[in-house]
Amino acid sequence: MAEVHQTNVRVNQALRSRLPEVDFAKVSFGTVFTDHMFQADFVRGSWTDLQLLPYGPVQFEPALMALHYGQAIFEGMKAFRTVDNEVVLFRPRANFERFNISAERMCMPVTTEEVFMDGLMRLVDMDREWIPSLDNYSLYIRPFMYATDQFLGVRPSDTYRFSIICSPAGAYYSKPLRVKIESHFTRSARGGIGYAKAAANYGLSLLPTKLAQKEGFDQIIWTDAANHEFVEEAGTANFMFVINDALVTPPVKDTILKGITRDSVVTLARSWGMDVQEREVSVSELVEAMHSGRLQEAFAVGTAATVTHISEIGHEGKVYTLPAVEKREVAPKLLKTLNNIRCGKAEDEFGWLVRV
């Protein structure tokens, strides 16, 4: 177990496990949850009442401030079962740090490492049997926090709840994606909350994504709010392009989430000696690269998506078909390497894994 200060956590174990009722191979993403959850309350300036308890409903009043003013943030991370039957977390401290960046932007209290990390480790350890040993499966972990004051005035809440729930998961996307470059709706503007993993960022993406899906696309490539001139990210992942043998991805800034999988992919590619360019990618450059054949690969990267191929890109009524997935080299190598590290088949040379 990682060296984390042990906190006082009250444990209320479930009387009966639901695990025997679950067939991992038939579980859809985010639909089945483990036996337990972790929670802590922020009251009078400190985190209190830490507990592991059976997964189940929570009670709140209609005036709960999170429902009215959107003070709600979350993280997404995974635990894996290695070939040696060990349980490992992938870069959990990066999630802890990003969670607190989101909290500060949403005027919410930061969590301590003791509360976040110790609660996380205890929960995953308690429900470790829920981690599938099937290939490409994992335990998806969702830490989240929301305002709990019962008040209708517009101000930051004084009280909050931090919780962690877990769900066994296979692949988020089962096939290569058809994506549409969005030229009307906006996900985030400069000075906004685009870099925070705030619930509001995802709520505002639902209508544009639904409209794109009606056109036959799976996801959206968001562009900048000012002129819709530059590529930014998807609602669920960061984007990567291979252009003239270089790995190109938009730079992290206040309109783009600092993806942990994105950082891992960039780190791996650089360690292989690839030309990695973190720079602005204009829509016109992307269209020209598709026209000329300079765009060799495009893929989405994220905790849920891992590394997912993009097969087609739509723009202004035209759909561009990208090179066949079978002929690609970079994305498959990245996916295989990440999977091998996480399941213990390859050396963890960057120290990304934390054993539970």
TrEMBL record:
Its cofactor is pyridoxal 5'-phosphate. The keyword Amino-acid biosynthesis applies. Pathway: Amino-acid biosynthesis; L-valine biosynthesis; L-valine from pyruvate: step 4/4; Amino-acid biosynthesis; L-leucine biosynthesis; L-leucine from 3-methyl-2-oxobutanoate: step 4/4; Amino-acid biosynthesis; L-isoleucine biosynthesis; L-isoleucine from 2-oxobutanoate: step 4/4. Its EC number is 2.6.1.42. One of its GO terms (molecular function) is branched-chain-amino-acid transaminase activity. PANTHER family: BRANCHED-CHAIN-AMINO-ACID AMINOTRANSFERASE, SUBGROUP IIII AMINOTRANSFERASE. This is branched-chain-amino-acid transaminase. It comes from Anseongella ginsenosidimutans.
